[in-house]
Design goal:
By secondary structure, this protein is α+β, with helices and mostly antiparallel strands. It has three domains: about 290 residues, no CATH class; about 120 residues, no CATH class; about 60 residues, Orthogonal Bundle (Arc Repressor Mutant, subunit A), CATH 1.10.10.410. The protein has 15 helices and 17 strands. The strands form four sheets. Strands 1, 2, 6, 7, 8, 11, 12, 13, 14 and 15 form a ten-stranded mixed β-sheet that branches. A three-stranded antiparallel β-sheet has the order 5-4-16, with no helix packed on it. A two-stranded antiparallel sheet has the order 3-17. The model has no long low-confidence stretch (mean pLDDT about 95).
Length: about 475
């Protein structure tokens, strides 16, 4: 039987506010345990929550960025469950009326584009954290995260492979960072995914029983967890078994998912409106004000890069994977307005490769857009060859000669020979010394032409302009 995997993702993005969603306690990461949990976070008797306006604004920005509907009135609800790291015994969230409804995310898998529908995005508070490793026979509770503002972004079950799920998660990750509502740090838990996975016979409409894999904090783990879970469910069904609805955890060491608890339904959480919080009212003027302040979004930039710079859809997609890379590209192109493709190639190639090698972000790149522009200008005007430019790039990266492109070219003796008469003289000498290869070329052996080019380049230690060598040599051989 042919099986179809059905995947929906719930993503928790920690919002980039300085204080928590219902208290004034700090959201800074890395403080000693329980030093950033105030009386509201601890749920001491008599305290009342006060909504953080900044968290609401960030949720609205997200909704506008995905063409969603911003509900003019939304309600906070109490989601009741009992964990040691949830001091109130309930989590303040949204259920029936979220702040953001609907929306779309465009993903690209290879050369295929696909639209993923969003169900909703709602505000809620984070729980604390249970710590097990450092305690013998006991667990510690750190409530620093309790009350940290989250935007839970829920997709429709529109994905059918782990590759699509990863593409969606990466696109969403890039977007929340692009509009500045989340730092996206997955190691610190600022961006984490829950994957709902089910399988069904291909061609059927009815959904299979889903299992939810909780707290996946890397794209690689997301892919592996989905692949394992899909295989597990298919094997059970093909052996005549049934799938139980449950919540599972992914064990990266064993590369498997395992049962955490029986999956709850909404009724189990006994949602009801929080009596301590009034309905959230959002005016159209507030929405318009935030819309005006949004930056140019990735889809608009991609379209502009294709239309204005003539880049391929693939190049435009890579360059807009992060706002920082896109800004670096644009600041480089300012120095070579007619050489956008050359700029894109170097940023996606040499710059990206070196950044990955050293494990740093483009914001820490030792070569500025202006310095890269100066290097690419020397390729464009024929001063140096592309091969020589890589040697100059290496010297610039290492900070040699204050990263002065012309000084490095001079010191390394890399200036390209572009004088027609000088090249013509060298070509004549090579032709005279290689009569057999000349004869072979004229008798239809194309490889002989490349050999002759190699001889000229060897004679100039690679400094001759290859395009000029090619043109002059062809003219001599066919004239």
């Amino acid at each position: 039987m042919q099986w179809e995997i059905v995947i929906g993702l719930e993503v928790h993005a920690q919002l980039s506010t300085r204080s928590k969603i219902f208290s004034g306690a700090s959201t800074a990461y890395g403080a000693p345990p329980n030093t950033q949990a105030c009386v509201v976070d601890l749920a001491l008797p008599g305290v009342l929550p006060v909504l953080n306006k900044g968290a609401v604004e960030q949720a609205i920005k997200f909704g506008l960025s995905v063409d969603a509907r911003i509900n003019s009135s939304s309600i906070f609800a109490r989601k009741n469950y009992f964990y040691p790291d949830l001091p109130k015994g309930y989590q303040i969230s949204q259920y029936e009326l979220p702040v953001v409804q609907g929306g779309n995310i465009q993903i690209q898998v290879g050369k295929v584009e696909k639209n993923i529908r969003l169900t909703r995005a709602h505000l809620e508070e984070d729980a604390g954290k249970s710590l097990h490793e450092d305690f013998h026979g006991m667990s510690g509770i750190d409530l620093n995260r309790a009350g940290t503002p989250l935007l839970e972004i829920v997709s429709e079950p529109d994905m059918h492979s782990s590759e699509e799920a990863v593409a969606y998660a990466k696109t969403l990750h890039a977007l929340v960072r692009w509009i500045g509502i989340c730092d996206g740090n997955m190691q610190e838990g600022s961006f984490r995914c829950d994957a709902n996975v089910s399988v069904r016979p291909r061609g059927t409409e009815k959904f299979g029983t889903r299992c939810e894999i909780k707290n996946l904090n890397s794209f690689r783990f997301l892919e592996k967890a989905i692949d394992y879970e899909a295989r597990r469910q298919i094997e059970i069904l093909e052996d005549g078994g049934i799938i139980r609805q449950e919540t599972r955890l992914y064990d990266a060491n064993k590369d498997e998912t395992r049962t955490m608890r029986t999956k709850e339904d909404a009724n189990d959480y006994r949602y009801f409106p929080d009596p301590d919080l009034l309905p959230l009212e959002i005016t159209q003027s507030w929405i318009d004000q935030l819309k005006e302040a949004l930056p140019e979004l990735p889809p608009a930039r991609r379209r502009r890069y294709v239309n204005e710079f003539g880049l391929s859809a693939y190049d435009a997609n890579v360059l807009t994977n992060s706002r920082e890379v896109a800004d670096y590209f644009e600041n480089t192109v300012k120095h070579l307005p007619t050489q956008a493709k050359l700029c894109a190639n170097w940023i996606m190639g040499e710059i990206s490769g070196q950044l990955n090698k050293e494990g740093i972000e483009i914001t820490d790149c030792p070569i500025s857009p202006a310095q890269l522009g100066a290097l690419l200008t020397r390729i464009s005007d024929g001063t140096i060859s592309g091969k020589a430019a890589k040697s100059v790039f290496e010297s610039m990266w290492n900070g040699e000669l204050d990263k002065n492109v012309d000084a490095i070219i001079e010191a390394k003796g890399l200036k390209q020979i572009s004088d027609d008469s000088a090249i013509e003289k060298l070509v004549d000498e090579v032709l005279a010394a290689n009569a057999q290869q000349v004869s072979d070329y004229r008798n239809g052996k194309e490889k002989a032409f490349n050999s002759l080019i190699g001889q000229v380049m060897k004679a100039t230690q690679g400094k001759a302009n290859p395009a000029q060598v090619n043109a002059i040599l062809k003219k001599k051989l066919t004239g």
